[in-house]
Amino acid sequence: MAEDSAPRGFSRRTLLSSMTATAVGAPLLGQLTSGASPAAAAALAPQLVWNPSPSGVGLKAFEGIEADRGNQHPDRDYVVIEGGDHYRFNIWKDDRDTTGGGDRQRTESKGMVQGGTKLKMRDGETWTLSYEMYMPSSLHGTSKFTHIFQTKTPVDNGGPYITLDLGRSGSKETLRARAYANSGSPDIASTDLSPLRNKWITIEWKLTIGSSGKATFTARNGTGSSAPVAVQGSMSNVKMPDQGDYQRPKWGIYRSVESASSDILDTYLLFRNYKAYRGT
C-alpha cells in the first residue's frame, strides 16, 4: 500500500452500505484439553463473540466515535470505511479535543457491539482481542503520550489501564504495550517502531480482567499465524478492574500535541479483521 502524507476525505453518506451483522459466536476450533470431558473443554474454550465486517455493520461495530467533539471541523471525516474491508482513522495536526485544555487530540472508536449489544469485559473474565493494523510513516512516536489502543472504565472514565503507545526517546521510536495504570506505567513489551511501518501487522492482547489481572501482548511483523513475532511479553498483577462496570477497549489515535511539532502531522491509522474471544 502506498504511503499517504495526509488524510483523504470521504463523504459520510457513503460510509455504511449495509447494517447486517456478521454472525459470530462459534467456538474457536482446537484440540480439547487433555483429561477434560468434551463438554467441559467446550465450556472453557474461547468463544468468538466479535468479528465485525466494515462493509456490513460499518461504525455500528463500536459503541461510538470520539473525534472533533467540539465540532470545530464539521467538513472532516474522521473514521471511515475504506476499500470495504478496513477502517481508516484520520487525524489532522490542528485537531484539538475538548479535554486537556487544548493540549491533546483524538480520533478513537470505543467499545465492541455485536447485534446491537455492548460486549463487556468484566472481572475474572479472560478476553483475547486481535486485529491487523497499518501505521504509515507520517504517524510518529512522540515524547509525550500517543496511545493507539487503550482500555478504560465507562462508569468513572477510569484509566487508561492498558495502552499501546508510540514513544520517542531522541531519534529512537518505539511501539510499547504498557500496564499504564500500574505504578510507573511499565512496559509489558517494547520494540523498535520503524520495521513495523507501512505494512499490515497483527496485534493480539490476552487480558484477564481484575485489580490484579494479567496481560499478554504479541505483535507480528505481518499477517497470519506464520508471520514472525516482532515482540511478545506478559505481565501479572496488572491493574485493570471493571470498577463495578466493565473494561472497554478503544482504538485510534489519542495524543498530546506538546511533543515536538515535527512529530504532530496530518496522518491516519488503519484497522481490519477485528476479533474478540471470551474464555480462557
Topology, pairings included?
Blueprint: H1 38-44, E1 47-50, H2 54-57, E2 64-67, E3 79-82, E4 86-91, E5 104-110, E6 113-114, E7 117-118, E8 126-134, E9 146-152, E10 162-169, E11 172-179, E12 187-192, E13 200-208, E14 210-220, E15 229-240, E16 248-256, E17 267-278
Antiparallel strand pairs: 1-17, 2-5, 3-4, 4-17, 5-16, 6-7, 8-13, 8-17, 9-10, 9-16, 10-11, 11-12, 13-14, 14-15
Architecture overview:
By secondary structure, the protein is mostly beta strands. The chain has a single domain (12-29, 38-278), classed as Jelly Rolls. The protein has 2 helices and 17 strands. It has helices at 38-44, 54-57; strands spanning 47-50, 64-67, 79-82, 86-91, 104-110, 113-114, 117-118, 126-134, 146-152, 162-169, 172-179, 187-192, 200-208, 210-220, 229-240, 248-256, 267-278. The strands form 3 sheets. Strands 1, 3, 4, 8, 13, 14, 15 and 17 form an 8-stranded antiparallel β-sheet that branches. Strands 2-5-16-9-10-11-12 form a 7-stranded antiparallel β-sheet, with no helix packed on it. Strand 3 (79-82) and strand 4 form a beta hairpin. The chain starts with 37 loop residues before the first helix and ends with a strand. The model is unreliable at 1-6 and 9-34 (pLDDT under 50). This is Tat pathway signal sequence domain protein. Residues 94-115 are annotated as: Disordered. It comes from Streptomyces botrytidirepellens. Residues 94-109 have a biased composition (Basic and acidic residues).
